[in-house]
């Protein structure tokens, strides 16, 4: 059962240990007077719309919805998790390029109080 096998990859970056220490430090002890955000993206999200309205939960029956849907193409979700508060900021964009990533960073920058430092934790995907 391959779906029950956990895999991992060890970095061959010579500065891996130093970078790991920095990232773990941001999670465990976020700096005062700064915001620590963990950013990621999910591309190829199906933009679906149900053909009929959903029915709400009632006593004795869960919510129901039709399995029929209308496709509206795909979208890319960019999201930022505030490590300290757990608050998530997200935006969807039609494309998945560095231009959209920069737009998302501007959204975050506009939401942060002026003068407050922002620490961003990212993976190494090419759009960054």
UniProtKB/TrEMBL annotation:
Keywords, in A-Z order: Endonuclease, Hydrolase, Nuclease
Keyword check for Ion transport: no
Pfam family, one: DDE_3
UniProt-listed InterPro entries: Tc1-like_DDE_dom, Transpos_IS630-like
Annotated ranges, domain Tc1-like transposase DDE: 36-128
Nucleus found in the keyword field: no
GO molecular function, one term: endonuclease activity
NCBIfam families named in the record: transpos_IS630 (NF033545)
Name of the molecule in the record: Endonuclease DDE
Naturally occurring in which organism (per UniProt): Intrasporangium chromatireducens Q5-1
